[in-house]
């Protein structure tokens, strides 16, 4: 198998590297699909919060989720700091969506 080198020319890629990259591509695809499903759920949460006049953010739940995800990451051998940053990014996006829904601008509509 060939790949493009830094200067744009083809080079041989070891079979093991190709196999690992294929696995990474599959995992990335699964992550995208999982994130899409997660955001479908959080959009519904945002609509429920808006209809009940609840605030877009829930700091107590966010703290519990961060602690939970850090523990899961640690158990899985993943850097808990990275996991917290990743979840923080997702939470910020969810809150942004909930704010838009509460303002009458549903991103999923």
Structure description:
By secondary structure, this protein is mostly helical. It contains 3 helices and 2 strands, in the order ββααα. The chain has helices at 15-51, 59-76, 80-102, and strands at residues 2-4, 10-12. A two-stranded antiparallel sheet has the order 1-2. α1 (15-51) runs parallel beside α3 (80-102). The longest helix is centred in the N-terminal third of the chain and has 37 residues, at 15-51. The chain is elongated, with a radius of gyration of 19 Å. The N and C termini lie far apart (44 Å).
Keywords:
109 residues, mainly alpha, 3 helices, 72% helix
- Model regions low in confidence, pLDDT < 50 over at least 5 residues: none
Distance, first to last CA: 44 Å
Number of helices: 3
Structural class of the secondary elements?
Answer: mainly alpha
Could you tell me the radius of gyration in angstroms?
19 Å
| Sheet with the most strands: spatial strand order | 1-2
- Characterize the overall form: elongated
Helix-strand pattern: EEHHH
């Amino acid at each position: 198998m060939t790949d493009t080198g830094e200067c744009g020319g083809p080079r041989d890629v070891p079979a093991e590297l190709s196999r690992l990259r294929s696995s990474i591509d599959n995992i990335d695809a699964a992550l995208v699909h999982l994130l899409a499903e997660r955001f479908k759920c959080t959009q519904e949460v945002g609509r429920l919060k808006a209809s009940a006049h609840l605030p877009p953010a829930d700091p107590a739940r966010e703290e519990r989720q961060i602690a939970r995800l850090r523990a899961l990451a640690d158990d899985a051998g993943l850097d808990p700091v990275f996991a917290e940053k990743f979840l923080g990014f997702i939470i910020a996006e969810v809150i942004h969506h909930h704010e838009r829904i509460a303002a009458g601008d549903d991103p999923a509509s």
